[in-house]
Amino acid sequence: MGELDALVRLAEQARLALGRRGLTLSTAESCTGGLLGHVLTEVPGISEQYRGGLISYSDELKEVELGVSNELLARHGAVSAQACRQMAEGARQRYTSDVALAVTGIAGPDGGTPRKPVGLTYVGIADEHGADVRRFVWRGDRHANKLDSARAGLELLLERLGSA
Fold first, then answer.
1. What class is the 3-160 domain?
2. What is the pLDDT of residues 68-79, one digit of tens each?
3. Domain residue spans of the chain
């Protein structure tokens, strides 16, 4: 099974779990560049659950479209647990969804620092119970890091929905 096929299978599980609970989903993506949205929309019938999302690659879009605080970005940076949390909360509010996933990170091969290395990624989820953010440091190339980040997002969603 190919890498994308495995992600689509996770997205199918997510559609079923969201459907069983009557919940809707939105996404806010940075380093994955729309990969979450892509694999979700590969699933027939997902339109009943998936409201849409935003590829917020720039800090400006994170601020303007998702409500990420300028002060937070200045203090912690776009690749931080704090920014990821606000991205998820902002997507949930903006797209009036029950659940929102957010991903922000440094896919590579450039952009890393000793404090924030290439592969550093935060994956977050927000729902009526609050927000949760997970930190990862992937070791692959840009393509692999994007795939790993999308997989982590879908797995976090399934975990939150009790379907992991």
1. alpha beta
2. 999 999 999 999
3. 3-160
